Predict the 3D structure of the following.
Amino acid sequence: MASRKLLDLLNKGIARELRVSVEYMWNHVKIAGMESESHGDIFKKIAITEMKHAEEIAERVDYLGGEPTTEPDPITVGKTPREMFQIALEAEEGAIKLYRTIIKQADEEQDFVTRRLFEGILADEEDHHNVFLKHLKK
């Protein structure tokens, strides 16, 4: 089974995914302004993807004999669209860094299923980062 180190990293991933699921959904609800409908739809779509990530990681933790966390990382919701996108961009940067670390740890433990799971999630996070970055440049 998995090491305590890998299980702890996976639970950090769950906490992060729970955090951004709430943040992005609240952004969807709270965003206002001329482009609020299109911006809100972006946040809603990505929030749902992030919740699916939390589910996938939790299922993996359970399979590996760990206890999935139910505690999100601290939640921060911006007050303006620009602040919302900036917070989201930074959250995605943190996820990218964490998930690269998880992939390395999974490799060290020859846990190829966890590696593949996080390669897919990492691709999603890089896409989310790109979406948020493009909106900040507008």
User: Anything to note?
Assistant: The helical segments are 4-30, 36-63, 81-108, 112-137.
